[in-house]
Amino acid sequence: KQQELNKNKEIIVLDHKRSNAINIGMTKLPPPRSIKTAILKMDATVMNREGIEKLLTMLPTEDERTRIQEAQALAPDTPLGSAEQFLLTLASISELPARLKLWAFKLDYENMEKEIAEPLMDLKQGMETLRSNKTFRCILQTLLSIGIFLNGSHVKGFQIEYLAKVPEVKDTVHKHSLLHHLCHMVMDKFPDSSDLYSEIGAVTRASKVDFDELAANIVRMETECKASWDRLKLVAKHDGSTMVKVKMSDFLADCAERIIVLSVVHRRVMNRFHRFLLWVGVPLGRVPDTKPNEFCRVVSEFALEYRTTRERVREQLQKKANHRERNKTRGKMITEVGKFQSKAEVRADSELRQILVSDSDVESIHGTMPWGRRQRKDAGRSVLSPLSPLLRDDAGNGDNLTDGDDEIFESIVKTVTRMPSTRPVPRERKRTKHADRKSCECCAVPEVMGMVTGLVVSVLGWVQEEPLACAPVE
């Protein structure tokens, strides 16, 4: 109720829809008290380009200004509404539309110039790249030779638009496209060629620009620059000679000069593009109708298809090479593989063999135990031992052992002959039908232990002087 009473105490002149639109727009703008100073000084730190656009849609009309002033004169003690107060503040600024449009042109000029200069530079660089690119020449040369062979007639060239149809033409046997065969031939005849697409980035960027619209933008910049001079004259009538006027005069003079240079650059780049079309082979009558973006799009899309097909062809060739290498050694023994090894593999194997031989020599010098065969008679039986070099000294006496060897043998014998501390519960056997058959565990266990001891002695090549003590049988 209090808010409604306060609203009734305010002067409301605008209709409800207009008032709401202004109040909503004010939320994205600086405070009204700072807007007037920012517009007069063209201070970009207070208000940006979006705020200028918003103000251009909220400009007060002459009728609204008159009604607000009349209502304020009738009730001078009653405050105005927020929307009415905002419009009255804007109305107090002289030549407000001219100031805002002049300020907007100043903020937009750099982006407008950049949007025109960069595509022109890309088109110029793209033409120079295509002229000097060896891969592009090789592709056109190979494609022309294929066309001459297939058609059976000698021609000097072909239309550049045919590049878009190369991926669509296929052979009748394997159904591979003409681009696939073209990649094979170019990679075979010119192994140092590239994928073309990664080298023509400028052409790809130029294919996305409408150069007709670019020419229209240059004309629009000239028009805006001339209109800005007229707006500056209107503002100068009210403000006189101020720093803002001096800066804007210098800015507009520089803009006019740069726009003239930009139009000259555009004309020269387009003339160079027309000469480039004649160099490519486009007929003279079709040169004026050929647009730069269409030409660049044909070349860029063909280059992208060429790169994709080229990578696929390289993968296929690599798979075939690997398959041939596997077939060389298929069904061969490992001793025959050396015949199919390359020089680098043979050299690596010989180096590895030398290292292994040198390591084995060093190990034998330092007392490494090489395994061998040795026959020794002990207790009237022949035993084969793999430790013959260790059991013999330099003089050939096979019974002399070092202290270290004794310790090793003792630990081995103890490990083998040691009985477990806890015997596992034996699995209960299924009894046979003959009840009178009994197994003698007291006789079987010593016999098994004797077999284990004999096996250990035969492997180690050493016979123990004293008999092994068997664990008591439970």
Written account of the structure:
This protein has 17 helices and two strands. Strand 1 and strand 2 form a beta hairpin. This is FH1/FH2 domain-containing protein 3-like. One of its GO terms (cellular component) is cytoskeleton.
Question: How are the SSEs placed, and which strands pair?
Answer:
Elements: H1 2-8, H2 16-26, H3 32-41, H4 49-56, H5 62-74, H6 82-91, H7 96-132, H8 134-151, H9 178-189, H10 201-206, H11 211-239, H12 243-280, H13 292-329, H14 343-365, E1 374-378, E2 381-385, H15 388-391, H16 403-417, H17 441-460
Antiparallel strand pairs: 1-2
Helix pairs in contact: 2-6, 4-7, 5-6, 7-11, 7-12, 8-9, 9-13, 11-12, 16-17
Shape: elongated
Q: Can you count the beta strands?
A: 2
Please estimate the helix content.
Answer: 55-70%
How many helices does DSSP assign? 17
Mean pLDDT value: 78
Which structural class matches the secondary elements? mainly alpha
What's the story with the biggest beta sheet? 2 strands, antiparallel
Alpha-carbon Rg, integer? 49 Å
- The secondary-structure element order is HHHHHHHHHHHHHHEEHHH
Low-confidence stretches: 365-399, 434-446, 462-474
Distance between the termini: 108 Å
Write out the strand line-up for the largest beta sheet, numbering strands in chain order. 1-2
Beta content: under 5%
